[in-house]
Amino acid sequence: MRRDVFQAIADPTRRAILSLIALQAMTPNALAEHFASSRQAVSKHIKILTECELVKQEQAGREIYYNLNPQKMQEVDKWLAPFRALWEDRFNQLDTVLQNLKNKNHD
């Protein structure tokens, strides 16, 4: 089953897994140590992340290491870019208003 990237990152546990493997490749057991849920539950999350290609797996001997797929994360970033530009513009406008108020109070 091919899953949607946004469906996958909607879950806080899956976002936490992505944050952990963004720093370094990790095995399912190493990932499971960071969560209160069972290793099987973490493995299910990893499976979903793998199905939507946010995570790549690499076999090293008996261990499987999971890595972040930055190309797939770029798709998420590309989708968010127009929204980021919108709120950055609004924050810049707010900065201008606040600076004008500050200047007005000093006059």
What would you say about this model in short?
By secondary structure, this protein is mostly helical.
Describe this structure in words.
The structure is a single chain. Strand 1 (55-60) and strand 2 (63-68) form a beta hairpin. This protein has one domain: Winged helix-like DNA-binding domain superfamily/Winged helix DNA-binding domain (Arc Repressor Mutant, subunit A, Orthogonal Bundle), CATH 1.10.10. The model has no long low-confidence stretch (mean pLDDT 93). The protein is built from five helices and two strands. It has 107 residues and is mainly alpha-helical. It has a two-stranded antiparallel ribbon with strand order 1-2.
Number of helical elements: 5
Mean pLDDT across all amino acids: 93
What CATH first level would be assigned? Answer: Mainly Alpha
Strand segment tally = 2
| Number of domains as seen in the coordinates | 1
Radius of gyration, in Å, reads 20 Å
Strand content: 5-15%
Largest sheet: 2 strands, antiparallel
CATH architectural group: Orthogonal Bundle
- CATH homologous superfamily grouping: Winged helix-like DNA-binding domain superfamily/Winged helix DNA-binding domain
Distance between the termini: 65 Å
The proportion of residues forming helix, as a percent range, comes to 55-70%
Q: Uncertain regions: pLDDT < 50 for 5+ in a row?
A: none
According to CATH, the fold-level topology is: Arc Repressor Mutant, subunit A
Spatial arrangement of strands, main beta sheet = 1-2
Report the structural category.
mainly alpha
Element-level helix/strand string: HHHHEEH
Rough outline: elongated
Protein name: Transcriptional regulator
Domain HTH arsR-type: 1-88
GO molecular function: DNA-binding transcription factor activity
InterPro entries: ArsR-like_HTH (IPR011991), HTH_ArsR_DNA-bd_dom (IPR001845), WH-like_DNA-bd_sf (IPR036388), WH_DNA-bd_sf (IPR036390)
